[in-house]
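Final report, section 2: Outcomes. Of the targets proposed, ATP-dependent DNA helicase RecQ is the one most frequently requested by collaborating groups, and we therefore present its record in full.
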Amino acid sequence: MPIARTTSAGYGTLELARVTLRETFGYPDFRPPQIRAVQSVVSGRDALLVLPTGGGKSLCYQVPALVRNGLTVVISPLISLMKDQVDALQRKGVSAAFINSTLSVSEVADRMARARDGSLKLLYLAPERLEAGRVLQQLVEVGVQLLAVDEAHCISEWGHDFRPSYRRIGLIRERLGTPQTVALTATATPDVRRDIVRQLALRDVEVVVAGFDRTNLTYYVTPVRTQPDKDRAAIRLLRTFDAPAIVYAPTRKAVERVTSVLVRGRIRAVAYHAGLDDALRQRAQDAFMQERARVIVATSAFGMGIDKPDVRLVVHHSMPGSLEAYYQEAGRAGRDGEPSTCVLLHAYPDRFTHEFFIGSAHPERSVIERTWRMLRSLVDRHGLVAFTVDELAKRAPASLGERKVGAALRVLIKAGACKAEAAPMGRVSVRLLASPERIIGELTGDRAFDREVLRALWRAVGSKLELGATIDLDRLSRGLGGSMALVPVLERLAAQQFVTWTRTGAAVRLDPRAKRADWLPVEWTAIDRRRRSDLNRLDAMQRYAQTRYCRRAFVLRYFGDPEVRSQCAACDRCLGTTEVLPPASTKQSDRGRSRPL
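The predicted structure is given below as tokens.
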């Protein structure tokens, strides 16, 4: 692997970073925004970097990680992108690894051992994995020198992709000893930037905001009325552009339908979404990356994990819910700096789908209150309501339904009025956090029954326990006493962090204060504020689709980019045409083109 060259302070210098960039990554120099970003990181300061998609954000922590002492931990929300980045680093000789839900217990243990012995420079983790006490404690013991938070807009509740697990990174950072931190995003408005800095408690922070303009991209909006109109427009576009393309669809079902339509239209297309098993998903991605399939149809979350630099066309089959999402997804085009095209197929009814999702995420007060009254009427003497969401919906008034009940439950759980639990049933999901030999070896003294239970679990499902397996405790072994006797064993093993386990049934436990009819700790103003924020983002996306003026200027103003021109000569409004054609040449245009990074 490349040798880490550092100063006596252990951070490295900008000149050492430039040498590493050339020798390890093969680039002659950093781009201007990257220079300022890398300078702040190698000098030991916290930093917030806002660089456009394709602007080389990853290099701003990868290179500093190699010219400093110690371990760099990277928090990333996308499993597929995490693996791709680690694979790319390993091909360059960099000691990098990831830990996520796809790994076995032994694989996780091996990677943590490499972190402990100092042979690992970069470790990628999903935020949920950092919340697991065992991994976090091991990282505390190892010592994290640099913490990189990718897709940092997920921290902010005002961001377009807010994730509660990201909100807790500030607390995790504190547990790690507040290491130097660099937060990275391509889509943060000024309000979101301030919230990221506040939530992470960054100090003496260097905020680097590069221009948002991707000069090599041309933007079009094609108005359509019906679903068949969209399908015909997509086929026409994909036939016109004989080049790699991504088509975004809003749901898994839509991805499958659009893929079928394209295949029937003799377009070599594959589907890519979370509903596919790992093998099918990998096969689809490999087919696209190796150009056995020219088009990949994806949901937004999974499409963002596709890192193919020569994508020439990105088509949105439906309007996204925010301009942040559109800008980020469209930005998968032309990452090599060559002229590329982004097309939104716009039908006004697309808005209704997003209004539906916003209503689900932020239900009305009356829905929450009625769901709460129903829970209070069903609670048992132990404070438990042992029903799944669909079972609760069947007992709810007809005007509520499963979607509204589920949304209200999420709000109530987040507010602390109740908490999700497993129902009292014998079926459980169990996963080992260490090898069975090690666990049995440490169960000394009067733990003979616990050892026997562990052996019975292993006999029942074998090595599946390392990844997680569902077991019926009441049928495990008649001589063990069923779930009543076995649940305490699982609780003891979990307390020692030998296993994780949950019941497969569903229930909620109400707070004891729920006995008071007037008690309900929901922040109504916060829910209303978030609902309005989401609707405002949807309105901005709608205005982009319908504007009569320069689309590029609209996007740049939205993100607070000071370098806004009234006309760009690279959108349908400025070009004065609705006809979408491939760029006349892949040579550098008059507008200049983005350098590939």
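The two ends are 21 Å apart (CA to CA).
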